[in-house]
Design a protein that fits this description.
Elements (H helix, E strand, L loop, with lengths): L1 E2 L3 H13 L4 E5 L8 H7 L9 E5 L5 H14 L9 E5 L1 H8 L6 H14 L6 E7 L1 H4 L5 H20 L5 H4 L3 E7 L3 H21 L11 E6 L11 H16 L3 E3 L12 H16 L14 H23 L3 H6 L2 H18 L49 H16 L4 E6 L3 H16 L4 E3 L7 H11 L3 E5 L5 H12 L4 E5 L6 H6 L4 E3 L5 H12 L3
């Protein structure tokens, strides 16, 4: 995808990446700008439309004019319409999800679809209507919700446009589905296979005259939902497995988002890596050489069947509410996705779901000293609702942990970074295990971790604590030893630091609390809430 603010620079970049192996381009147009024929001609200069898929990602208000100008350019340069591939991303229902309003009145929004379809009549491989399932995914939906609501959105277009007198044979092939691809490797493969099956079933129900019209055009995009601000190179691993899922599943085109796209404008390095991930999978792994590598796999086939059943139930539920727009007006779509997002965020806070480098195994040496734009920490709730309904709020899985750690980093620029002193004592196996656990736990907040192998005596440990002058001391030992050592340590520290016990010795809890311990960290702890509480206690703002 290339931002087309500066047309000359965008064209130069497009030609550069085409020379490096890319075969499909997405031009992200400035939504406020009116593009004339000379503008698109400059943008597409020296790009051969019969050899390169060209996609225009534009505002709903621009779509008709962009399509008109592009068609005239194809005529001007005598292109073979049967060989032109691409799309104009006209998606009024996606605008509804984003803003709570349709771009035009209800009738006008779908009449534009009819106009675009008429203009694209001679272009069999150029779609003009888009379903952006990626939007659900980036709002925290489940795979079932992403697919169920995307299909319902697609069916809404079929209903509304055929009611305007357009044949289903013309509408269905001109809809392009932009789906998000997440980290659940096999489930994502099954999702795409289930999508094709169910879309074919829906289109046939509308009376398509030929089974080829029921073929689903799928563009996959690596989702932002699970990408992280801290330890960002892990994002490369995430997008690699996601790309594999998408390709093995049989998508038509793919965008690999650069690893740093969630927190900055991608640079030459991150874009090169994203581009080469695709090229390696194609040229060295040969994933483009097999039509359906997942066919016959019992695991994937049974998963596909299960998905088909659950997604179909959700699709029928939306239809029973009166279709996609009515379900949106009633808040069913937004509420369903919100519940899913809240569950995922809670699982991440409890570390039932792991985001490597964010809520588990953080790189404790990583610091962010520059100021990060507030947009990097999106909110899941939007205050304003549109005329039709409340917008679907997008976000990211690790944003709360990122905000937590960024808060510490910013505080450390003004004052002292809080130190966590690990005080291992007693049982070797337990003290080492709990030291490692504690290091990961407090590392998620960006605190400095002072690790120790262990102390022979409590006095040795207390002496080391006084030398390091930490804000937090974590006692790491076995449950059996805590009743004997915790009161002595608490007494000798004399409230000079926040005292934490690693573990949850339930039998001796009351005794330890009487000794002055208020904090216990363990595998059932809400890591996010605990660390936010620690920040408040330390006055980090």
């Amino acid at each position: 995808d290339i931002h087309a603010g500066n047309l000359g620079e965008a064209n130069k970049k497009a030609l550069d990446v085409l020379m490096k192996g890319i075969t499909s381009l997405g031009f992200i147009l400035d939504g406020e700008r009116k593009y004339l024929a000379k503008d698109l001609e400059l943008l597409l200069k020296n790009i051969f439309a019969e050899a390169v898929e060209i996609n225009f990602i534009c505002s709903p208000e621009q779509a008709v004019e962009i399509m008109k100008v592009h068609y005239l350019l194809l005529e001007k340069y005598n292109r073979d319409f049967q060989k032109v591939h691409g799309s104009v991303d006209y998606a009024p229902l996606s605008t509804l999800l984003k803003t709570g309003d349709l771009p035009f009145d209800r009738k006008g929004s779908f009449e534009k679809c009819k106009v675009l379809l008429e203009m694209a009549h001679d272009l069999p491989y150029f779609s003009v209507i888009a379903v952006n399932g990626l939007r659900y995914r980036n709002a925290g939906s489940s795979i079932i919700q992403e697919l169920g609501f995307s299909l319902a959105e697609g069916a809404e277009y079929l209903t509304q446009v055929t009611e305007l007198g357009v044949s289903i044979d013309k509408v269905a092939p001109n809809i392009k589905f932009n789906l998000g691809i997440g980290p659940n490797y096999f489930m994502e493969i099954a999702k795409v296979r289930a999508a094709r099956y169910l879309w074919a079933k829906i289109v046939k129900a509308y009376g398509a005259s030929n089974h080829t019209y029921a073929s689903m055009n799928i563009h996959a995009v690596t989702a932002d939902w699970n990408k992280t601000l801290y330890d960002p190179y892990v994002n490369m691993l995430r997008t690699t497995t996601e790309s594999m899922s998408a390709i093995i599943a049989g998508i038509d085109s793919l965008t690999v988002r650069p690893f740093d796209t969630v927190f900055s404008e991608p640079g030459d390095f991150s874009e090169r890596i994203a581009r080469n991930q695709q090229l390696l999978l194609k040229e060295e792994s040969y994933l483009d050489k097999v039509v359906d590598p997942a066919a016959g796999s019992y695991y994937i086939e049974s998963m596909t069947d299960a998905l088909i059943e659950e997604v179909w139930k959700l699709f029928l539920k939306v239809e029973s509410l009166g279709g996609f727009i009515e379900a949106f007006m009633q808040g069913f779509i937004q509420d369903s996705v919100k519940k899913s997002a809240e569950k995922k965020l809670n699982d991440i806070a409890l570390r039932r779901e792991i985001l490597l480098g964010t809520n588990q195994y953080p790189n404790i040496h990583e610091k962010i000293s520059k100021e990060i734009d507030a947009a990097v920490f999106p909110v899941h709730e939007k205050d304003t609702a549109g005329k039709i309904g409340k917008p679907l709020a997008e976000g990211r899985a690790g944003q709360q942990f990122a905000a937590l750690r960024y808060k510490t980093d910013q505080y450390a620029l003004r004052k002292k970074r809080p130190k966590v002193f690990l005080l291992p004592y007693g049982n070797i196996a337990m003290r080492l295990a709990r030291s490692q656990f504690s290091s990961n736990f407090f590392g998620c907040a960006g605190f400095d971790i002072i690790n120790n192998l262990g102390f022979k005596t409590i006095d040795d440990g207390i002496k080391a604590v006084h030398e390091k002058d930490p804000e937090i001391v974590v006692i790491c030992s076995s449950d059996e030893e805590y009743p004997d050592i915790v009161p002595e340590i608490a007494n000798k520290l004399n409230n000079t630091a926040i005292l934490v016990v690693a573990g949850y010795p339930e039998k001796n809890l009351e005794q330890l609390q009487k000794a002055g311990v208020r904090h216990f960290i363990h595998i059932r702890s809400n890591v996010l809430e605990t660390l936010q509480g620690m920040q408040d206690e330390l006055g980090i703002y």
